[in-house]
TrEMBL record:
Keywords: ATP-binding, Magnesium, Membrane, Metal-binding, Nucleotide-binding, Phosphoprotein, Repeat, Transmembrane, Transmembrane helix. GO terms for molecular function: ATP binding; ATP hydrolysis activity; metal ion binding. PPR repeats lie at residues 5-39. The chain crosses the membrane at residues 205-231, 258-280, 300-320, 332-350. The keyword Repeat applies. This is Uncharacterized protein. It is found in: Membrane. It comes from Taxus chinensis. Belongs to the cation transport ATPase (P-type) (TC 3.A.3) family. Type IIIA subfamily. The lineage of its organism: Eukaryota, Viridiplantae, Streptophyta, Embryophyta, Tracheophyta. It comes from the Eukaryota. Residues 442-474 are annotated as: Disordered. GO terms for cellular component: membrane. It is a multi-pass membrane protein.
């Protein structure tokens, strides 16, 4: 080798060991020590599996002494490889007693290290399960456990993820976080993948919401601010149905990364919007280069351009934050694409008055209600059906009769004429008020221009009309 350092020797030893050239790996390890190159923990972890595969107990014991001399006996990874080597050499028919040597090494390890590097436990009691979980949690591990009996309840409550089997007791089910519906363990893989996908969506939502919140707040009209907020939040909420890939490793909250990314991208987007506003207001750069109509003298057009710019960058930002790799390499979900397209259609719309017809109709209805022409409440389905059936005229006559009775009762209390004295002025005012409010029709009998003289005799009577005595309060 042109360059003989520890890394080069380890690469050669590892290559031989992984390709089943065990003897060459051991020979290379011997040659490594000749130039006085000191092996490190990676070299020991690479050569010990080769000794176990070959059953080379003598070479393994020599490496064991080197490990002690070099002070690597407290390294959990190295000790684990050493135990594995002794176990494999002990299973060799030529060296049956050597399995005990692996046990003696195991007993010298601290209990926490032994629990952490172990792949499984056998012959344990319920209290041992609880202790194992507690020690692993003390070392900041996230623990999960399956159980089916009453004796597993304390441990199922202690672990971070308690999983009850399909045939578990009611006590185990109530103490668990997940209850399997099938009597197999492979469904746990689906549970883990689903939880990681949910976690990925939550992280995308948090990052996207935070970036949008950092975008510069412009002096929009209240309607534009409301539309931007509703459309952005609506698009962000569809991230919960987004098409994502679960991570290969367990996830954890990296708040520093989220805050740093949010600050950088949020500041960048805010600056681009401010620069865009400055160019549009103070220069003719866009008309000169793109031959478009200048809008710097029209504040409403500037506001519309700013809304379009903010809408596009805030919506496009969601596609950037939803993926940890290049955004165009992962296809987004159908609902996310639909909400994005709806938001952009609203942004590019040329309509000048959304809901104008509805507002005008509501204003007319309220004015008619204030004038007593119709009720403020919308018509019921029965009333609409009656109108379709030809009962409109009958309904209007009934409504007019009702109004006349109500107004007449109010007027009688307001205009009171004493029975013993005649005051033609009061009668005349009373009559004119009734005609103006359309409680009475115009007092015409045979001739259109014939108007009765209210100052002579009693008040006008027609058919069953009101009499002089009745409407004077007698």
């Amino acid at each position: 080798m042109p360059q003989r350092d520890v890394v080069s020797w380890i690469a050669v030893i590892g290559g031989y060991a992984q390709n089943e050239f065990v003897e060459k790996a051991l020979e290379t390890f011997k040659q490594m020590r000749l130039p006085a190159v000191m092996p490190d923990s990676t070299a020991f972890v690479s050569i010990l599996p080769a000794c176990g595969k070959m059953g080379a107990l003598t070479q393994g014991m020599d490496i064991h002494h080197i490990i002690i001399e070099r002070g690597f006996f407290s390294d959990v990874v190295v000790v684990n490889a050493l135990i594995d080597m002794y176990a494999k050499c002990g299973s060799n028919p030529r060296n049956p007693p050597q399995r005990l040597r692996a046990g003696s090494i195991t007993r010298t390890l601290p209990i926490n290290d032994l629990i952490e590097m172990a792949d499984g436990f056998a012959g344990v009691f319920p209290e041992h399960k609880y202790e194992i979980v507690k020690r692993l949690q003390d070392r900041k591990h996230i623990c999960g456990m399956t159980g089916d009996g009453v004796n597993d309840v304390p441990t199922l409550k202690k672990v971070d993820i308690g999983i009850a089997m399909a045939d578990a007791t009611d006590a185990a089910r109530s103490a668990s976080d997940i209850v399997l519906t099938e009597p197999v363990l492979n469904v746990i893989i689906s549970v883990v993948l689903t939880s990681r996908a949910i976690f990925q969506r939550k992280k995308n939502y948090t990052l996207g919401f935070m970036l949008i919140a950092l975008i510069w707040r412009f002096d929009f009209s209240p309607l534009m601010v409301l539309v931007v907020a509703v459309l952005n939040d609506g698009t962000i909420m569809t991230i919960s149905k987004d098409r994502v890939k679960p991570s290969q490793m367990p996830d954890s909250w990296k708040l520093k990364e989220i805050f740093a990314t949010g600050n950088v991208l949020g500041t960048y987007l805010a600056l681009t919007t401010v620069i865009f506003l400055k160019i549009v207001q103070d220069t003719d750069w866009f008309p000169n280069h793109f031959h478009v109509e200048p809008i710097k003298d029209d504040p409403y057009k500037i506001m519309a351009a700013l809304y379009l710019q903010v809408s596009i960058i805030s919506q496009a930002l969601i596609f950037v934050t939803r993926s940890r790799i290049w955004s165009f390499l992962e296809r987004p979900g159908f609902m996310l694409m639909c909400t994005f397209l709806i938001a952009q259609l609203v942004a590019f719309s040329t309509s000048k008055a959304y809901g104008r017809e509805g507002r005008e109709a509501e204003w007319a209805r309220s004015q008619r209600s204030m004038s007593g022409l119709n009720t403020a409440n919308p018509k019921s389905m029965i009333e609409k059906a009656m109108e379709r059936a030809g009962y409109t005229e009958l309904s209007e006559i009934t409504e007019q009769a009702k109004r006349r009775a109500e107004i007449a009762s109010l007027i009688k209390g307001r205009f009171h004429v004493d029975c013993g004295e005649k005051n033609p002025g009061d009668e005349d005012s009373y009559f004119k008020f009734l005609v103006q409010t359309k409680v009475l029709d115009s007092p015409v009998k045979s001739e259109p221009d014939e108007v009765p003289d209210l100052n002579e005799g009693s008040v006008w009577e027609e058919n069953s009309g009101w009499s002089d005595a009745e409407d004077r309060g007698c």
